[in-house]
């Protein structure tokens, strides 16, 4: 009998460049209005990157609200910070991460093909949650959550050969049939382009002060069935990921989990601030006999294919060696 593969994770820092967003999802507490302090200052970004590098982090997760320039007042603020828009700011900070020895991974919401190509110059991988193919009331005020818009971007990422992360959000008003449809769509996109490296199966977590604060979370058995469904539908070379700060991973590992995502020894989960990351030292207890293996934010098969900008090749090789040296 072949033993199960170890669960993987990446060691990261989380950098929310702005919390301004055009979407108004009923479950989100990340978004804030345009106001002083809504842009993460360059000095804070650089300080976080330097501290992360000192702690052995290999991934800089850059994220921000979708299309913040559509919110009145934001353009004035980002230009006052010295950048024409949030994408150029992100590009510059990704370059700073590379210079400090950390691989950037950006999740910026909806981007055009040209915008993705621009950020691809300084990213090892990128991502966008599909969330669901269903039209749910939770997204009624969120133009960027139109399923067709998100599907198109995931497809265009494949056309650009971007190693890509996507996923589904479980418990926001979709049915089990909707989850199956979403996973099958991701499978079919990967079969066409070969660019999906991991699919997050993320459980909805209610947030105080949001319209969905009182909505019950999916029960553990239903969440386990959804994880198993993902593992059954998705190709073997696509990892199924859960967030160990949002659900009890000890009870879910056996449901078909391959990966625990990015875990930070330094920064909080700004999207789910009420759920702290498990300490890296405690992950071994979570995974049990499966074992644990650290990885980069770009998976090995995409490194072998050369699906990365030449600018970061030497850094990828160095970080691969760094991980090997600290692995048991």
Question: Topology, please?
Answer:
Layout: E1 7-18, H1 42-54, E2 59-64, H2 74-80, H3 86-99, E3 103-107, H4 113-120, E4 125-127, H5 147-159, E5 164-170, H6 176-193, E6 196-203, H7 220-233, E7 239-241, E8 259-263, H8 283-287, E9 292-294, H9 300-305, H10 313-326
Parallel strand pairs: 1-2, 1-8, 1-9, 2-3, 3-4, 4-5, 5-6, 6-7
Helix pairs in contact: 5-6, 6-7
Briefly characterize the structure.
It contains 10 helices and 9 strands. The chain has 328 residues and is α/β, with parallel strands linked by helices.
Structure overview:
It is built from ten helices and nine strands. Helix 5 runs parallel beside helix 6 and helix 6 packs parallel to helix 7. The longest helix is centred in the middle third of the chain and has 18 residues, at 176-193. The mean pLDDT is 95. The chain has a single domain (7-326), classed as TIM Barrel, CATH 3.20.20.70. Strands 1, 2, 3, 4, 5, 6, 7, 8 and 9 form a nine-stranded parallel sheet that branches. The chain starts with 6 loop residues before the first strand and ends with a helix. With 328 residues, it is of the alpha/beta class. It has helices at 42-54, 74-80, 86-99, 113-120, 147-159, 176-193, 220-233, 283-287, 300-305, 313-326; strands spanning 7-18, 59-64, 103-107, 125-127, 164-170, 196-203, 239-241, 259-263, 292-294.
